[in-house]
Amino acid sequence: MKPPPAKLCGSLEGPPITAPRIKLRDGRHLAYKEHGLPREKANNKIVLIHGSDSCRHDAVFATLLSPDLVEELSVYMVSFDKPGYGESDPDPNRTPKSLVLDIEELADQLSLGEKFYVLGNSMGGQATWGCLKYIPHRLAGVALVAPVVNYWWKNLPLNLSSEGFNLQPSRDQWAVRVAHYAPWLTYWWNTQKWFPGSSVANRDDVSLSQPDKDIILKLGSSKRPHLEEVRQQGLHESVNRDMIVGFLSWEFDPIELENPFLNINGSVHLWQGDADMLVPVTMQRYIAERLPWLQYHEVARSGHLFHFAEGVVDDIVKTLLTT
């Protein structure tokens, strides 16, 4: 089944354009949202990369950051809609590298300076690893928060990737297989009704741990006030495209990356909950072992959404900017 064309924002039948947007090198537009101090006054500028089924409004690292810390650390943040999400134009040719180039263009058009910080969460990890690969010279520091791991990275031991893969519900194992081996079937797979598609695409919490479910219960309806905007241009160029890009074969392996801050100030941090059922902690531990220059922070009794817990965002941002 061929996916329907995306409903482009600003088109006759598409959603309206309400956000500020930049025009990219290929004519696409990228929508963004600013947080914290005015960018011309801030000393520390952070680009936030959202996860799957999210948008620029889901900037928890900005909205939960304490005002005192914003002032103390002189913080400006910008969140943006990844291509196909919210009000950013789709990019059917998206790769980890192309998204990195989008981020670099956003930073340059907003005059964020020669160097800036990058903070990516969950499926935002694909672009965050990509920044370390393709634009290390532009980075002041990097934080990866529960970044999704591609089971087909060539340097992951087969037994480890198989173990992590098999921890997923069978519906998600099949959805990931389709995204990797037959990406052209991803739309059909996640919309047909004969058997369950991806839990993320179907917004089913089957893959969430009990700590995550407790957090969702506590947040209630306040968690996603902009939920309808996330997929307003269509499922395929947003959630499905994230899956395809995230689980296809990449042209680089993060486990082979070199320290971008070997002789200069800066640091790379990876935060992971030990009870995460979406991203197996065993795989993050292995990555941390292989990359000794990466500072690994494991959060006990916590799932994929541990950063919503009180005080965690402050810890992550302060650690990024001060170590």
TrEMBL record:
Gene3D superfamilies named in the record: alpha/beta hydrolase
Residues annotated as transmembrane: none
Residue span, AB hydrolase-1 domain: 46-308
Domain of life: Eukaryota
Signal peptide boundaries: none
PANTHER family, per the entry: ALPHA_BETA-HYDROLASES SUPERFAMILY PROTEIN (PTHR45763:SF24), HYDROLASE, ALPHA/BETA FOLD FAMILY PROTEIN, EXPRESSED-RELATED (PTHR45763)
Name of protein: AB hydrolase-1 domain-containing protein
Organism of origin: Microthlaspi erraticum
